[in-house]
Structures are given as structure tokens and as C-alpha cells.
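Quick one, probably user error.
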């Protein structure tokens, strides 16, 4: 059986709230997803450099910011040539400019987004099998989303838009 994890990350890959802000962000998440959740704890991670926070088994493709192509990492025959491109890109600096193979668009590596939704981030807060509350749309469900009002509260703390990422573990 699959497990699901939910993360909130700043949409700006270099955005990192200060320590006080990070604590407020986590405290708000504890209200949004009160214990117990899957492992009785919360995820709270700070990265020195932006790291990919992605959908795990649901991470299928990197989306081109130039032409919106879903550059698939694998297909029915296994890993695609794009997967090699991705691995090579990941071995470089996060602020490197990379050239997407689909259309030649140039992008900062850290600005790439994934499908299912994922992104580079310096900070993530979340939970395994999160519990739900009335801060979630329609009472909450796996692959659901927070209410707009609650998301705005996280964004006010982060100082930038916040992404909601579901991981299939
Ligand atoms: Zn493209």
C-alpha cells in the first residue's frame, strides 16, 4: 500500500524564512494537520541549497518553462534519455542556467517545476499521512489542498507564494 506525504514549500526556490518565521510556519502547520498523523511527527527540513521536493513515485516529468513540455523521466520502456539530462543537471549548481532539450529554452535549474507538482526549495514542512482539519478544502483528503485563506496565512509567513506538494512514498 502506498503512503502519502504532504509538504508546503516556498515557491521561490531561494526563499528561506528566518528561524522565527520557520517556527511560526511549523506551528501553523501543526494547527492545520494536528497529530496524530502517519508517523506521529512532522517534517521540518532546511537545506543549504535548493533541493528538489517532489512527488516521489508520482514524479514523472520536468516541465519546460519555455514550451510547457512534460519532459518525462521514464516511460513504458524505462528511463528516457531526458533522465540522463536531469541527473547531469542535478550534479551541477542550483543557480546554473540549463538548456532544456525540448525547445532549447534556458532556465535556472532551481526554477524548474515538476509533474506531479514539485519544485526546488530551501525549506519544507509537512507530514506523513497528514491529518486534516477545517483548514483544508472540503475537509481534506489525499491530494487535496488547503483553503485559500489558510494558504495565504502560510504565504504571509514565508513572504512568497507557497506550493502544496503530495508525495507518493
Ligand atoms: Zn521546452
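Nope, works fine. Designed sequence:
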Amino acid at each position: 500500500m502506498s503512503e502519502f506525504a504532504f509538504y508546503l514549500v516556498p515557491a521561490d526556490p531561494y526563499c528561506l524564512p528566518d528561524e522565527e518565521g520557520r517556527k511560526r510556519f511549523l506551528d501553523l502547520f501543526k494547527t492545520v494537520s494536528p497529530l496524530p498523523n502517519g508517523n506521529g511527527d512532522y517534517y521540518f527540513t532546511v537545506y543549504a541549497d535548493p533541493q528538489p521536493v517532489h512527488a516521489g513515485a508520482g514524479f514523472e516529468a520536468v516541465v519546460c518553462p519555455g514550451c510547457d513540455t512534460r519532459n518525462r523521466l521514464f516511460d513504458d520502456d524505462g528511463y528516457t534519455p531526458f533522465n540522463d539530462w536531469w541527473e547531469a543537471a542535478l550534479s551541477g549548481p542550483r543557480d546554473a542556467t540549463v538548456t532544456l532539450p525540448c525547445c532549447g529554452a534556458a532556465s535556472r535549474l532551481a526554477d524548474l517545476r515538476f509533474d506531479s507538482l514539485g519544485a526546488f526549495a530551501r525549506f519544507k514542512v509537512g507530514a506523513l499521512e497528514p491529518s486534516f482539519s477545517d483548514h483544508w478544502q472540503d475537509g481534506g483528503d489525499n491530494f487535496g489542498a488547503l483553503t485559500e485563506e489558510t494558504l495565504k496565512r502560510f504565504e504571509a509567513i514565508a513572504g512568497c507564494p507557497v506550493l502544496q506538494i503530495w508525495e507518493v512514498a
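The CA atoms of residues 60 and 76 lie 12 Å apart.
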